Amino acid sequence: MTEPPSDFTATEGRLWQAFRHGDVCDLRTGVPELDNPNTSRVWGPERTVRASAVARLLLDGPQPVPGTVCALKLSGARISGSLSLAGGTVSPYVELHDCQFEEQLLMPECSFTTLRMVRCAIPRIEAARMSTQGDLHLPQCTVPGGIRITDASIGTDLLLNQLVVHSDRHGRAISADGLTVTQDVEAELIRAVGEISLRSARIGGRLSLRGSSLRNPTGRQALNAARIAIEHTLYLSSGWESDTLSGTGTPPRGVRTRNFTCDGGIRLDDGRFGNALVINRARFRLTAGQQLSLRRIQTPELRFTPQAPPTGRIVLSSARVGNLATEAACWPGAGMIDISDFSYVSLRPTGPFPLRARLEWLANATPEYSPEPYEQLAAALRADGMDEEAREVLLAKQRRRRETLPLATRMWGYAQDLTVAYGYRPGRAAVWMAVLWAIGSVYFTRNPPEPLKDGEGPTWQPLLYALDLLLPVIDLGQDNAWRTSGLQQWAATAMVLAGWVLATTVAAGASRLLRRN
């Protein structure tokens, strides 16, 4: 069949011939204001193609002109009626530019080779369980009624850059639960109002939301991607755009930079990221009940460097991370962080993050004492060869633990802290021993005791006598050869008690260090 069907209009006839030749049917005027598909201006019959005619070409089109390949390449058209391709198989290549759809696009369980729609205005896209052998492109499209691509399978890339999408009646802007994409999902600089749902999605490359704006004013989540699996990296970071270009990385001079912004919760619970999760130059404006939830995620690297601390709660409980790259200014205050059972191999500061700030970070994350965050930070510091800092963290842990103990045990803890810092500063014991020895030696030099038996016993040596009193167990033969009374007796008793306290605290500290090692 070489001529278009008799019921085709003249415009549809042009499209028929272009389809057979694999050429573009361009109905645009060349005037940007007149070619904008989002205009309220109604395009006339010279730019109108019926949805039924498009469906006929895609599902049961004519044979190509010899030496060519059929393709639907349509620009600047108004597609009247509802385009339904449900359950069909579309073999030709499809590319639409600046087209205006009158009604929703229905493609559930439809199979394509490649589908590209650029700068199109579409009331809604219904494409659950659709599949493509190649790409699915929707850059710069406007979809006010939401997109549904649940359980869809994309053979190569999914491109959504600069998409503008609003929610459906269920509050979802993009429903993509169970989505499978073999390569990358590029969703940079998009503007979404409503929830983006990517639960249990599988992405073979990266998912980039650089420079995007997500907002869900009526629900809890702006991005719900629980159980997502991304083989490479998830980017929640900045992007850039100009009048002719958009991209990531270092922006060229004179272009606009857009941060990633999110007004609503983010849920990435149980997510798996093969290379990294990057949260950089991002803003999270969370209300009561909304969270940045990263429960049980697994990734070799978490880069958490938002432009400002999130206004809501950050939850990293039971997450498993290799390198944690962050800094002090990125985290909210007390009670807004949950890092229970959060483990990481190393902590790589991207800016100022001294030990004092790290301890404050742990205190903010543990309103009620929990040892695990302190032990995790100490282990990461030891792995980086920072043993002194690791001991300071463990000392801070003991001081936090002391606050939870009964009064008598707290007093014993204060004694251990004052003398040997719970064993993490053993040199203090030698200092205390030397001070007490010197004080005892001076006192007993000026106030020597009487010999127990006249003419018997060792020669009086106040230095050895004071040392014998201080050293428990060890007998230098001095303390039992002299008789004390009055203040001498009280001084000797105090020396003996001080020696036992020092010895006990040193033993307790040493035992604690040996258990830790």
TrEMBL record:
Keywords assigned: Membrane, Transmembrane, Transmembrane helix
Bilayer-crossing regions: 490-514
Domain of life: Bacteria
Identification of the protein by name: Oxidoreductase
